[in-house]
């Protein structure tokens, strides 16, 4: 369980985030949504242990977060792969750093994300969507309990983006990882989230938490829950404007 208790962060005189309190249960998928500059990345970086809060506390399973943990992985907007390494070697990087033998896991993850036949390729030989899949595999090789994702699909075209969101939902259902996911897309938030935390403009505060009660697996396009999707989307839309 992640608990964010009264967490705030300033940069000099700039108050980025003010007094955020939020709990994320094990296996839950929470999406953070809010205007540009409201502190979403700041909050995610604090949960990751990359940035200390100026006030308040953040704990994971009862332990205060003071530095990055092995069981917490992060995926960013850009895949940040090492260009001279193969796909497989990129995925294995965290295992190498921690001194684990994870060749079998890497093969399994590449299989799961449809990248098996590209394992010997270099990142520049892959499309943007495939590169982001590699970044996801590299995060999952740590077998994280918590996966933090900062607009992971925003640099992709709309269709690839939908495809990856559906894939991420499947991975979440399979692995039960706790996920905190930042997005600007209401559609993505409604597809993925158990709850959507809407942040107010800077300094960010939780404006409202919207529960998304739509059965899974959820799909884009025509489905049996279009009314529920429309009403959740409209609610989020009005909270952001
Ligand atoms: N390291 C830093 N030093 C100084 N100011 C920072 C730093 N990181 C963030 N900020 C400021 O804090 C505020 C919140 O930034 P943050 O990146 O968390 O916003 P965001 O919600 O992720 O925005 P976006 O949707 O554009 O990614 C911004 O005004 C930003 O300029
Ligand atoms: Mg950001």
TrEMBL record:
The record's section on PANTHER family has: ALIPHATIC SULFONATES IMPORT ATP-BINDING PROTEIN SSUB, TAURINE IMPORT ATP-BINDING PROTEIN-RELATED
Output the InterPro entries linked to this UniProt entry.
AAA+_ATPase, ABC_transporter-like_ATP-bd, ABC_transporter-like_CS, ABC_transporter_ATP-bind, P-loop_NTPase
Q: What is the name listed in the Swiss-Prot or TrEMBL entry for this protein?
A: NitT/TauT family transport system ATP-binding protein
- The UniProt transmembrane annotation reads none
Identify the SUPFAM superfamilies for this entry: P-loop containing nucleoside triphosphate hydrolases
**In what residue span(s) does the ABC transporter domain sit?**
2-226
Give the keywords, sorted.
ATP-binding, Nucleotide-binding, Transport
Q: Which GO terms describe its molecular function?
A: ATP binding; ATP hydrolysis activity
Species per Swiss-Prot/TrEMBL record: Paractinoplanes atraurantiacus
């Amino acid at each position: 369980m992640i608990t964010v208790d009264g967490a705030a962060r300033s940069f000099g005189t700039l108050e980025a985030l003010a007094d955020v309190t939020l709990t994320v249960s094990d296996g839950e998928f929470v999406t953070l949504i809010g205007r540009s500059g409201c502190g979403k990345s700041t909050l995610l970086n604090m949960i990751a242990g990359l940035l200390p809060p100026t006030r308040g506390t953040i704990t994971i399973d009862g332990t205060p977060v003071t530095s990055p943990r092995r069981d917490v992985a992060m995926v960013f907007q850009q895949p940040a792969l090492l260009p001279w390494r193969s796909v497989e070697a990129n995925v294995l990087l965290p295992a190498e750093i921690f001194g684990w033998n994870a060749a079998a896991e890497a093969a399994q993850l590449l299989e799961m994300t449809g990248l098996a036949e590209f394992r010997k390729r270099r990142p520049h030989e892959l499309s943007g969507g495939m590169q982001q899949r590699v970044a996801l595999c590299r995060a999952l090789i740590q077998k994280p309990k918590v996966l933090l994702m900062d607009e992971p699909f925003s640099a992709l075209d709309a269709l690839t983006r939908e495809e990856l969101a559906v894939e991420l939902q499947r991975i979440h259902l399979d692995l039960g990882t706790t996920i905190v996911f930042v997005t600007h897309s209401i559609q993505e938030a409604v597809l993925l989230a158990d709850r959507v935390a809407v942040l107010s403009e800077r300094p960010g505060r939780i404006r409202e938490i919207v529960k998304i009660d739509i059965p899974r697996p959820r799909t884009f396009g025509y489905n049996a829950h279009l009314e529920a999707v429309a009403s959740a989307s409209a609610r989020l839309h009005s909270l952001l404007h």
